[in-house]
Amino acid sequence: MEHLPVEVIGNILSRLGAARDIVIASATCRKWQEAWRNHLHTLTFNSNDWSLYHEFSRSRLEILITQTIFQINGLQCLTIILDDVDEFSAAPVIAWLMYTRETLRQLHYNVRTTPNINILEKCGRQKLEVLALSHNTITGVEPSYQKFPCLLSLSLSYVSVSDLDLSLLLTACPKVEVLTLVSLDIVMSDQQAPMVLSSNSLKDIYVEAISVDKFILEADSLEKLHLKDCTLDVFELVGKGMLRFLKIDDVSVIHLDIGESAENLEVVDVSNFTIMWAKFHHMISRSSKLRKLRLWGVVFDDEDEVVDIETISSCFPLLRHLSLSYDLREAAIHYGLLGSFVLENVVVLELGWTVISELFSHWVSGLLERCPHLRKLVIHGVVSETKTPEECNMLANFTSCIVRLMRKYLRVEVQFEYE
User: Fold this and answer.
1) Which of 361, 283, 275 is nearest to 315 (CA)?
2) I need a surface site. Which of 36, 254, 360, 406 has the fewest CB within 10 A?
3) What is the pairing mode between strands 160-162 and 185-187?
């Protein structure tokens, strides 16, 4: 170990990440102390790493962090996630940011300050590539001054911000590719106007637990869109058809429109969502490159609607992974499996139920017949803690049916997943 260059030791210490572990390791010898001071590039203060953080007072934590940061030259990645601290004083936080701003590439920060400080002002016009802010307030964004020329990833969680400031912040990040928005307190400057976010560089957006009436996303380069636990009247994506991944999970939306962005879709994953099948299918029907389709726990807006698997077969010839779970009715079996279609390229089939019935067995059988190259079948089910004799008998009959059925498909791996 004594022959290791100080640069290599610095990389080793940086991989430790946790501040306490780094300080202990750096006490090994003078060489390690030099590596800590001059070649450490990653430092993390996280209450999950050391339980004693919970017992320190705010002032003691401020002193501890200040003493540690000010002994390091050239810090590139700083993480401060201390859940038990209600708020830090503004002065030491400003000192940390001003000391590290010229070399910092990543900042992960989730502690409030009193009074509130403008972190964007302290970090703007520098080399920051990743910025993750939590439990802060963003006000008065000035794109001409608070520009982030190198920022590639922006994450905002539990942040209070107006729709105008959020839009301006995105404008101030001309190279941002990844955007994460979680549980934002969004103040609308005009209740009648939509929230509009626009970016030419954005490739990946994740939006969770956000409620606005109308959300318009203008992103020509967007490849991945994930909406979760959101309440929206209208969501519109305006792009140039680069979208490859679409995931919608437990979202309430009246009007969903991805415009011309469906042609290159490869993955569509929809769960816990109410859909009008005809309208939804029309939206993705041009996705001839689709390889994975997941409709899980979906509810049809019209009780008479069914998923037309024959149409799926004709529209998505490259489909390899099909996952379906919704309220099965006799019509779903009869109309959903009409025709002599074949899911030629499907190799993984996932099927699920919430209430088991004889229909489910027939549905499994019908779909297996139409997947000649299937390699894996996964059956998901819900089993309650208490079951009536009738339910136990139904489950037993279903199990026997699947055993008999799979004797015809020995090449297929079968997996059961019960909740």
Assistant:
1) 283
2) 254
3) parallel
